[in-house]
Amino acid sequence: MTGRWIGDPTSAAACLTAVRELGSGTVSELATAAGLSRPTLESALVKLADVGLVEHRVDSVQPHQAGGRPARVSRFRPDAGYVAGVDLVGTTVKVALADLSGTWIHTGAAELATPTSANPSLDPVVTAVHAVLDDAGADGRLLKAVGVGTSGVVRADGTMMTSPFVRPWVERNIRDELTALIGVPVTVDNDLTLAAFAESRMGALRDTGTALYAETFHNMAVRVVIDGNVVRGRRRVAGELGVLKVFNAEGYRLETYFDDLARFEVALLALRDGSTDPSHLSLRDELVASMAKPLAAMTLAVDPDVIALGGRLGRFADALVPQLIESLHDASIRGPVLDTRIVGAELGRAGILVGAIDQAFALHAAEIYGLPVDPPVQNLIHDSEELSVHA
Fold it and tell me: How many Å separate Cα 338 from the centre of its chain?
């Protein structure tokens, strides 16, 4: 079982990172990867084996190696624990389960309604996490941490500053409540922030200096990403442009948000299939016009290298980008041409889950590994694609 590390954690963390990234290796291979001496690495491996993170085996000698000694191989144990990510944006709770190597082993979009203002209970979140553990055949006692993405502004201590779809959550510490209910450390953060961070780590915004991650819809919100870090601001409200009257599109209310999304989804799907129906084209143009103003303002504010279109409609970037680029060109009167590259988010809706799992690994390394190690690079499974295209 993993737990807090006793003794000097530096060499053990380097050893753990090396064996986790390689999967397995001999002492020589791991010492080289970790940048440690053989004695130091061997000592760390003993401790990692004691806490259940590493196991050893002795490889048999190959025929052409007659006379040599069998090599001891140390293998990382990814099944020593699990981390879950939860997406509460949409109509049903979505969960992804990753092992300690960062590999997704199961996802689920259970028929459990997400909390709403009318039904703010956290029970569906707890039930969904346990259901995915059961479906995966994972020992629930090995769950180490959970990351949650939700709408609204979340303070650093886990208290909801705003919660548009679950108003009774405002000024409640949802992080602490879920931690008590699930029994492991929980992180809670804004969905767009998590998705932006995930795209900077694994998606369309990786290796960029300055970038924007924008929700693809009316009354949009934007996240600024600089050198892989999401800019939060003093009160974590940086980029919440949709609350400003100047950028607020009339006729679009929270009460009809999901119905409106579905209506635009139908039109954009039809356009992707070659439709020339005036009603479909009109909806696309209306969406582009609504998004162009805040995007133009943010483009001038931070001069990004790239803009990624995310959210549920981000997968239709190919149908929106040409018109958005034209609208950005037209937005500037006497200033520089707004010619930033615009792309679709690569992770789609799965980005919220990726970001939630990544944040759980980052903030709770001591509880997960017992050591201060960086989050693993996640390896998504194929059925995560389903989660990226449905609400």
Answer: 29
Give the three-class secondary structure for 137: coil
Domains and CATH numbers, the chain: 9-76 (1.10.10.10), 80-194+349-387 (3.30.420.40), 206-344 (3.30.420.40)
The whole-angstrom separation of Cα 335 and Cα 33 is 50
Give the CA distances from residue 119 to residues 129, 161, 169, 191, in Å, rounded to whole numbers and listed in that order: 18, 19, 11, 20
Phi-psi region of 337 (alpha: psi -120 to 50; beta: other; left: phi over 0): beta
pLDDT in tens, 50-103: 999 999 987 654 444 555 567 789 999 999 999 999 999 989 999 999 999 999
What is the tens place of the pLDDT at every residue in 163-198? 999 999 999 999 999 999 999 999 999 999 999 999
How far CA 108 is from CA of 100, 310, 318, in Å, comes to 19, 21, 28
Residues 102, 84 contacting (CB under 8 angstroms): no
